[in-house]
Amino acid sequence: MRFADRVAFVTGGSRGIGKAIVEKFAGEGAKVAVIDINERALHDTTQALREQGYEVFGTVADVTDRKQVEQAVAETVDRFGRVDILVNNAGVIRDNLLFKMTDEDWQTVMNVHLTGAFNAARAVQKDMVDNGYGRIINISSTSALGNRGQANYSTAKAGLQGFTKTLAIELGKFGITVNAVAPGFIETDMTRATAERIGISFEELVKHSVSQIPVGRSGKPEDIANAVAFFADEASSFVNGQVLYVAGGPKN
User: Fold this and answer.
1) Alpha-carbon distance 80 to 22, whole Å?
2) Residue 39: CB partners within 8 Å, gap ≥ 6?
3) I want to staple 72 with a disulfide (CB 3.0 to 4.6 A). Which of 54, 61, 96, 179 is the partner?
4) What residue ranges define each of the domains in the chain, with the CATH number in brackets?
5) Measured between alpha carbons, how far is 250 from 19 in angstroms, rounded to an integer?
């Protein structure tokens, strides 16, 4: 129960990697606030966790809307008293080759990943500074190193790494560490959408991906949750401004 008496705030926490992160924190004693734009998935995830006896608060909010994020953070502080851990997980893909990519494809991905992370980090930092403690974990991707058909997503995820290192410098003296986890191939709805986009079955995509992964298996959402938990731990206080590639082998 290493997160007992801690409060975590997770964006995009109702499915996939985000859901696994929420379950990890709740299972290890944290009170957890979750925001998502998918009302049905949010309800199902939070309800299931409450039925297991966990303290979980969920509210519909769009990370690209500053006021909605600030309101969700304020509600979390009112309910749980503080925010100790922020995980910027909310994300979308709008994959396409550059010559086919629309302005909307580009801007949507930038808004969710970059503006969303900025809105959430700015909203929680005052409470963390006042408390002299905080952990911010941004979910990047191995796509930050470049990936065909993902000019928007790759750029956004690379931007999150720069955001991570800058906040680590600014906030470290207040007892707040800021790190990033960069997943490789993880079996989620998002990677299923990738398979559909490129016109192959998900099983074919998994098989091809595993053939390129040194550990010989694909990643699961729980693999990312474990890495996030490492950065969120009190014992990780001297780890700051780092990007951890969780991809089954060298990526950087």
Assistant:
1) 16
2) 60
3) 61
4) 7-184+221-246 (3.40.50.720), 187-218 (no CATH)
5) 26
Which of 54, 133, 153, 245 is catalytic? The answer is 153
**Is residue 133 among the annotated active site residues?**
no
Rounded to whole angstroms, how far apart are CA atoms 9 and 101? 32
How many residues make up the chain in this entry? 252
**Res 16: pLDDT:** 95
pLDDT in tens, 70-104: 999 999 999 999 999 999 999 999 999 999 999 99
| Euclidean distance between CA atoms 23 and 8, whole angstroms | 11
Residue found under tokens 């390129």: 212
Q: Which pLDDT tens digit goes with each residue over 130-187?
A: 999 999 999 999 999 999 999 999 999 999 999 999 999 999 999 999 999 999 999 9
Amino acid in the structure at residue 18? G
Short-list 249, 176, 239, 178, CA closest to 219: 249
User: Are 140 and 228 spatial neighbours (Cβ–Cβ below 8 Å)?
Assistant: no
* Residue 233: Cβ-neighbour burial (10 angstroms; 0-12, 13-18, 19+): middle
- Is the distance from CB of 80 to CB of 31 less than 8 angstroms? yes
Placement of tokens 């129960």 in the chain: 1
Q: Spell out a b/e string for 44-66, using b for 16 or more CB atoms within 10 Å of the CB, else e.
A: ebbeebeeeebebbbbebbbbbb
Which residue type occupies 77?
Answer: V
